[in-house]
Amino acid sequence: MKRISILSILLFCLKSFSYSVPAWAWTHTFNGTVRAVEYAGNYFYTAGTYSDSAFVYDNTTLPNNGSKDIFIAKWDSSGNMIWAKSVWGSAYDSVVSIKVNSNNELILSGSSNSAVLHADAITVNSNGGYDMFIAKYDLNGNALNAYFYGTAGNEYSIDMCVDYLNNIYVASANKLTQYNNSGVQVWQKSLTATQGNYVGHVIYSTFDSTVILTGTYAGIFTLNAVTLNTLFMLSWNYWPQKIYYAKINPNSNLVWLKDDGIDTHAQHTPNIFAKASNGYIYTAYQQFGGLGGTYYAFREQFPNGNMTNAAFGGLPVAGQGYDNDVISIIAVSGNASYVSVSTDNSFDGQTLLIYNVVNHTVEKIYNVFTKSPHIFRSKTAIYTPSAAPNYSWGKISHDSLLGAPTYQ
Question: How many Cβ atoms sit within 10 Å of the Cβ of residue 235?
Answer without folding.
Answer: 6
